[in-house]
Amino acid sequence: MKAKVVTLDAAEAGEIDLDDAIFGLEPRADLIHRVVVWQLAKRRAGTHKTKTRGEVNRTTKKVYRQKGTGQARHGARSAPLFVGGGKAMAPVVRSHAYDLPKKVRTAALKHVLSAKAKDSRLIILDSAAVNEVKTAALAKRLGKLGDGNVLIVDGVFDEKFALSARNLPKVSLLPVDGLNVYDVLRRDTLVVTKSWIKAIEERLA
Length: 205
Description:
The chain is α/β, with parallel strands linked by helices. The protein has seven helices and six strands. The longest helix is centred in the middle third of the chain and has 17 residues, at 102-118.
């Protein structure tokens, strides 16, 4: 498929051929959802912890005699039934990460890129470089490319461009090696530099 290449000022700078196997698929929400859940699970700290009845600091003396009181049998005040007792089936420190096949992760990235292309939210940029560090000037130029949150993907970012963009709340910079489903999906517009389209296609081939 053909796609227009534009400059930072939204002027046309030619065309580029995009691989239909990566940018021309019919997006599958189930694949994208699986990978997003997997990514978010890996991010979870898993440091939640509550004491069980064996860990609370309470007396282990028998509360009252076993029979004849008309009440339930209890052996210690650390039982979950009592105020100040341990937690039954308490959460423990653990990892929430799990394995997901590499083919599924690759397929989901292809489908989320295709979704951006289908919604006309994929912009191919001639180059991400500026002559001077000016945040306001860059914000004005990027505003011509698209509205909302913008994710810009490049190899090694131009230093002046990176310094100009770092204080823009709706602009995120991501190296091509870190391209992932969640970051692409949570931004409105995906901007990829022309020189790194081939790198993306080779990675997902």
